[in-house]
């Protein structure tokens, strides 16, 4: 029932910005937690950020992106966004959004995933 569709990925030079979108259906973002994960080739899928409407809009960020990325939600569009600034080559990965009743750090906690969107940051 829950469906997630990511968009907004692309190629950007180091120091640039991208805004990823996650369109959500099946649940209301105000009542659920939506997280962003990323996975680079040969690396483990890692949590990037999460926003928990079920917990009153609380947010979480990985240390590697604090101060550069901002997660937000738009209840009217039932979407979650990830604004990524000051991008670095090490941010290159496929970015996925995922849904869970509450924010959790492990990808295995999430049963609902989008298809992913590629973010490539060139040096």
Q: Any overview of this molecule?
A:
By secondary structure, this protein is mostly beta strands. It is 0% helix and 51% strand. The chain is built from no helices and eleven strands. The strands form two sheets. Strands 2, 4, 5, 6, 9, 10 and 11 form a seven-stranded mixed sheet that branches. A four-stranded antiparallel sheet has the order 1-3-8-7, with no helix packed on it. The radius of gyration is 13 Å and the shape is globular.
Topology:
Blueprint: E1 3-7, E2 10-13, E3 18-25, E4 33-39, E5 46-52, E6 58-61, E7 69-74, E8 79-84, E9 93-100, E10 112-113, E11 117-122
Parallel strand pairs: 2-11
Antiparallel strand pairs: 1-3, 3-8, 4-5, 4-9, 5-6, 7-8, 9-10, 9-11
String of helices and strands: EEEEEEEEEEE
Extended strand count:
11
Average per-residue pLDDT, rounded, comes to 97
State the end-to-end distance: 40 Å
Biggest pleated-sheet summary: 7 strands, mixed
Helix-strand category: mainly beta
The rough form would be described as globular
Strand content: over 45%
Low-confidence parts: none
Helix content: under 10%
Separate helix tally: 0
Radius of gyration: 13 Å
List keywords for this structure.
mainly beta; globular; single chain; 123 residues; 7-stranded mixed beta sheet; 11 strands
Please outline what is shown here.
This protein is an all-beta fold. The N and C termini lie far apart (40 Å).
């Amino acid at each position: 029932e829950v469906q997630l569709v990511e968009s907004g990925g692309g190629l950007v030079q180091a120091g640039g910005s991208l805004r990823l979108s996650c369109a959500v259906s099946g649940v209301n973002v105000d009542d659920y937690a939506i997280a962003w994960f990323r996975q680079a080739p040969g690396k483990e899928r890692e949590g990037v950020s999460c926003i928990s409407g079920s917990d009153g809009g609380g947010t979480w960020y990985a240390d590697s992106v604090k101060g550069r990325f901002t997660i937000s939600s738009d209840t009217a569009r039932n979407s979650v966004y990830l604004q990524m600034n000051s991008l670095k080559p090490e941010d290159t990965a496929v970015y996925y959004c995922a849904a869970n009743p509450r924010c959790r750090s492990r990808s295995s906690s999430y049963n609902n995933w989008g298809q992913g969107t590629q973010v490539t940051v060139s040096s």
